[in-house]
Design a protein that fits this description.
The two termini are 36 Å apart. It contains 13 helices and six strands. It has two domains: 37-209, Protein tyrosine phosphatase superfamily (Protein-Tyrosine Phosphatase, Chain A, Alpha-Beta Complex); 217-323, Four Helix Bundle (Hemerythrin (Met), subunit A), CATH 1.20.120. The chain has a six-stranded mixed sheet with strand order 1-2-3-6-4-5, with helices on both faces. β4 (92-95), α3 (103-108) and β5 (112-115) form a beta-alpha-beta unit. The chain is of the alpha/beta class. The chain has helices at 2-23, 78-87, 103-108, 125-136, 152-163, 169-179, 186-193, 200-203, 218-238, 252-265, 270-273, 277-298, 302-323; strands at 55-57, 60-67, 70-73, 92-95, 112-115, 142-145. α10 runs antiparallel to α12 (277-298). Bound molecules: heme C. Heme C binds at residues 97-98, 117, 119, 219-220, 223-224, 226-227, 230, 279, 282-283, 286, 312, 315-316, 319-320, 323-324.
């Protein structure tokens, strides 16, 4: 049964790969800025509340304004992204995910980082107030991000802008729809819906003590890295497991080996060890899938690699739904 399924999948994927190869003779450079047409002319026009779609600028993606000068989007891509922010007058960037912020690139563009990570289950009231204090004490425009700028930074900036008195919950919820926040993250939506403006005294604080790199350890740190590596593996997969022309140093077996080792390391993670049997079952499966994926990529079996990458992606979701997002 198993053999049959994978055999027919191989045939289907063979057709698919042939079709893709035919369609991809002139690959589109992925890192080219794509302006939303609604945004108007001028490559570096700032994001505006009037934008009805996210905009993309060089090295910056999925940018949405939640109030005047209060913007969110994906993690800035190296020097290019921070140069764009600098030219828009941004001197403060806030990361709300678990990855280590690229403070060196930011510094080269006179940008300070503040790192206040959140999870997918809610934006705590303490975090909302801290983020609102950052907004209230920053005279110029501010950019908040998570990895893709869709879920966590959208909720973080939405709630914080409400607490800072710069928007209201209904308007922030509408902006989250534009950012692309998934409906399933109920805790993120309700944090914004229930956010309330703070008084001036609560907002006035010295933000100098907020960290530029927060201490993130254990499962969150491992997951932030898994997420980055998984994105690289996806990019390799989309290029038939070959190094893409726009990213020639992306070598698939190097990244699948990293992914395999990261998952294997979770067996020793204290938080994972304390989880119930349901969690361990999905984790064990993910460990096997990541290891099999690495092997399939090394064997040059594209069809099997595609199938294993998809299976691993399902395991991410299956574990996150009950154990991360609620
Ligand atoms: C067996 C369970 C399990 C699997 C499988 C799993 N995760 Fe996670 N992940 C978690 C848990 C639990 C958290 C929340 C940790 C916390 O906030 O304490 C998390 C958090 C995350 C985060 C948020 C990290 C941050 O910045 O705070 C990302 C991103 C993530 N996972 C990506 C992935 C990806 C991508 C995969 C699959 C390739 C994956 N995870 C597979 C359990 C899992």
């Amino acid at each position: 049964m198993r053999m049959q399924r994978s055999a027919s999948r191989t045939v289907r994927l063979g057709f698919l790969l042939a079709a893709l190869a035919a369609a991809c003779t002139a690959p589109v450079p992925r890192n080219e800025p794509r302006e939303a047409p609604a945004h108007g002319p001028g490559p570096l026009a700032p994001p505006r509340l009037a934008d009805s779609k996210p905009i993309n600028l060089p090295g910056l993606h999925n940018i949405v304004a939640y109030a005047d000068g209060v913007w969110t989007g994906a993690v800035p891509e190296g020097d290019e992204g921070f140069a764009t922010l600098e030219s828009l007058g941004v001197h403060l960037v806030v990361s709300v995910d678990g990855a280590v912020p690229d403070v060196d690139s930011a510094r080269r563009h006179s940008i300070r980082y503040i790192h206040l990570p959140i999870s997918y289950d809610t934006v705590s009231q303490e975090r909302q107030l801290q983020l609102a204090q950052v907004i209230a004490s920053t005279p110029g425009p501010i950019y908040m991000h998570c990895h893709h700028g869709k879920h966590r930074s959208a909720a973080a900036v939405g709630a914080a802008a409400v607490v800072a008195g710069r928007t209201d919950p209904a308007a922030a919820v509408e902006r989250m729809k534009i950012s692309g926040t998934a409906p399933a993250y109920e805790g993120l939506w309700s944090a914004v819906r229930n956010a309330k403006p703070a008084d001036a005294a609560a907002l006035a604080t010295d933000i100098g003590a907020f960290p530029s790199i927060a201490t993130v350890t254990g499962l969150v740190a491992a997951m932030a890295e898994i997420d980055l590596v998984n994105d690289l593996v996806r990019t390799a997969k989309e290029n038939q497991w070959q190094p893409p022309s726009f990213h020639p140093d992306l070598v698939a077996p190097k990244e699948t080996r990293r992914l395999r080792d990261l998952f294997a390391s979770l067996v020793r993670d204290a938080e994972s060890q304390a989880m119930d049997a349901g969690y361990k079952k999905v984790l064990d499966r993910a460990i096997v899938e990541a290891s099999d994926l690495d092997e399939a990529v090394r064997q040059g079996d594209a069809a099997k690699s595609d199938a294993l990458f998809a299976a691993l992606g399902k395991s991410c979701k299956e574990c996150h739904q009950p154990y991360r997002d609620k």
